[in-house]
């Protein structure tokens, strides 16, 4: 009954209605289990495994990204401190070449 109502909708209706609440997703899973339970039991665990792998990969990449940003920030800070030191000890000749 609900499936027929969804199939009768004009295709443009789906462009404006985006109900992806938790209850809607659970009901979609229940409908999938009712109509085709075997592929659902294959697809859902595969989806969960792939999601876990992607999440693990993304968290590892985020850690590496933060380390790289920290390293580059330290390097930039050191360069700026050294430029100030060179300007102080280099005198007016050095400050003209930096501008």
UniProtKB/TrEMBL annotation:
Residues spanning the membrane: 32-57
GO molecular function, one term: ABC-type transporter activity
Domain ABC transmembrane type-1: 29-91
GO CC term (a single one): membrane
Keyword terms: Membrane, Transmembrane, Transmembrane helix
Keyword rRNA processing: no
Protein name: ABC transmembrane type-1 domain-containing protein
